[in-house]
């Protein structure tokens, strides 16, 4: 039985990828991770998809994080090669999401522990249901932070807050995460969250997707460039975008409805 379910919405050019392993509570085991990676690659390579949405099929949980029985077996047998393969698979999934040519969205519900949160920190748009709980407690298991947490958390919420949640190992809520800047929106119910995501995908589908893709690349490149270099790249991207005939069409449309 598959632990990942993908539903395509042609009206919004969206691939909804559902984590669907009730028995393991969407634990990041080999089966789920492998299937998830395959579906993300497929969506990334599809010319008909503009947005990718990650959701859980189950109301009570998004992901329980790493497979603890699997980690215990690796630790007992000191199977470093197996651990390396698992982590490399998960790291590839993280980079496929972060560097995706599509707009990536994650909607958290229930609880998302450790890697169940961290794997999706690279999404472009992150939302959650208010009852969702999170935790970063690697050191309580005697291991170090992984799966992009040491990369994304300081960049998204700052060093001080990152150290606080990692060192304390305490649960934190969706509202906490939004206040810190980790999430874009928080909703009262799963229904409200899904409705918002669908509306958001509709907006993406209506706009010029090439311009959206180029802007996404500019934002990501800004972390690597100085101001002068970034201005140079912005200038080239802007001039390239004006070669698209769609710009004339959209500018005329805006002028037709302008009140200025």
Automatic annotation (TrEMBL):
Xref: InterPro entries: ClpP/crotonase-like_dom_sf, Enoyl-CoA_hydra/iso
Secretion signal span: none
Superkingdom, natural source: Bacteria
Designated name of the protein: Enoyl-CoA hydratase/isomerase family protein
Organism, scientific name: Metabacillus rhizolycopersici
């Amino acid at each position: 039985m598959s632990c990942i379910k993908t539903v395509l919405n042609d009206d919004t050019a969206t691939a909804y990828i559902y984590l669907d392993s009730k028995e393991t509570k969407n634990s990041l085991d080999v089966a789920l991770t492998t299937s998830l990676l395959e579906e993300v690659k497929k969506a990334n390579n599809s010319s008909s998809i503009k947005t990718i949405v990650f959701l859980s099929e189950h109301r009570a949980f998004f992901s329980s994080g790493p497979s603890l029985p699997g980690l215990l077996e690796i630790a007992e047998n000191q199977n470093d090669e197996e651990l390396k393969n698992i982590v490399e698979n998960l790291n590839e999934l993280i980079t496929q999401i972060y560097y995706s040519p599509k707009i990536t969205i994650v909607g958290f519900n229930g609880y998302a522990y450790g890697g169940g949160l961290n794997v999706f920190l690279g999404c472009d748009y992150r939302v959650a249901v208010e009852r969702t709980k999170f935790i970063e407690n690697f050191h309580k298991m005697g291991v170090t932070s992984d799966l992009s947490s040491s990369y994304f958390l300081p960049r998204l919420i700052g060093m001080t807050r990152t150290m606080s949640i990692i060192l304390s190992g305490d649960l934190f809520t969706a509202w906490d995460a939004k206040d810190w800047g980790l999430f874009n929106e928080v909703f009262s119910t799963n229904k409200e969250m899904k409705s918002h995501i669908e509306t958001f995908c509709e907006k993406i589908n209506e706009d010029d997707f090439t311009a959206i893709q180029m802007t996404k690349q500019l934002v990501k490149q800004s972390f690597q460039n100085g101001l002068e270099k970034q201005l140079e790249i912005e200038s080239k991207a802007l001039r390239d975008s004006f070669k698209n005939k769609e710009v004339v069409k959209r500018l005329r449309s805006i002028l037709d409805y302008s009140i200025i």
